[in-house]
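Most newcomers find our protein records easier to grasp once they have seen one. To make this concrete, we reproduce a full record directly below:

…
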Amino acid sequence: MSERARAERAKGTEAKEKRRAEGTVKEEARRAEGAAREGTGGPGEGVAGASSVRRSGGSGGSGGTGGTGRFRRERVRRRLPPLLRLLIATQFAFNIGFFAVLPFLAEHLGGAIGMAGWLVGLVLGLRTFSQQGLFVVGGALADRYGVRPVVLVGCVLRIAGFVWLGYAERPWAVIGSVLLIGFAAALFSPAVESEVARQAVAWEKSGGGSRTSVLALLSVAGQAGAFVGPLLGALLLSVDFRTACLAGAGVFVLVLAGHARLLPQRIPGRTAAPGGGGLRAVARNRAFLGLCCGYGAYLLAYNQLYQALPGEVERAMSDQAPLAWLFALSSVLVVSVQLPVTRWAARRLDLHRSMVFGLLLIAAAFGVVAAALPAGLTGVPGLLPGAGFVVLLTLGQMLVVPAARARVPDLAEEGRIGLYTGAMSSLSGLIVLVGSALMGALLDSGLPPAVRWLALAAAPVLAIVLMPGRRAREREAGVRGGADG
């Protein structure tokens, strides 16, 4: 081969290599453009998710951006560790069994058993207090002994409580059964919620995505169960209340069997908390106590779905049947828009402002009913104020709950997330216990209905005043090394 031929051949080979390299670069560019179109920063996004967390200002208040809600939820489910997936599914199952019974309890107590309004309010308050008020016990036990034994014992007690409630006909038996039902949840709920929070923080630190998105997904699972539960309960009530209670117990039998098989004996990275001293530290933590005030006001307002709303539905329709559909409306809203609302709040609000905005929406929910009552609407138009109440209350819940849960790990001492998770619910339960009795007396009073609903709106507004101000938040941010809060 001549020198000229060899030179031309070498030149041709070089040109081919150049074209191949250019094609590779273009292909990489197309892939990068496609990834950008999919959106980054949400849970399950790996390194991209971590970079979005950094762009949005650190842990706690950050959330994903971009992407559709359905796409983001599917990415979360595929990427979350197996333990987180199990715990989130647990929340779904718990709420199916619980909400098959609870929405219809007030009507059962007032109608079939004939309790006075103040006593119905007290029973509902005792149920909430025995649950929320004793969360601190369940949380401390979970810190000390682990998640598995606490969850399993709680399921056994919930089964017994539902069976007892189904056969209870005297006030003392009703009170005993609802206390047992509440204490069961005081065991398993803080164990599950605190471990989800701990796993969410670890997942965030590993670059998986923001903790608020995981905690929002926990709310989505809970509300999906709260959607299925009342529909199941309404169907079973066509037989009787006892059948609904036994069906709720049956759900927890399945939960007990599943967790006895699937829940790990030991969770990696979890160590037993030291005994003593935890409650004193909780009592001295002003930022945490302020957080409890805000969360307690939300719970008191949410309790009105079972205390005040049934009376409003009865006034408008002379029937309790639409109540199940209003509960379903709340659940559908959370399932469909909780994650988009969480991402929106992460881009525009820190965790404190998210709670304030949520509590204002809750106050407005009561105001809507108060404004409409003087018109005296009945029938389907008369249900619209109640529907507006449910929508605004649920939107407020979507902002308050993930933000409150996301702040707990940053305020808790090392190894005591369960205690602090439980303490937040316990202090909030105390607020609900006192508030529910007062609200029951208020609803039975001779005051005009509009005045009663305006009085209900005062609780979330007062909580905003009691929550820690700017200086407390700055001190908290300093403790966490500049993370938002």
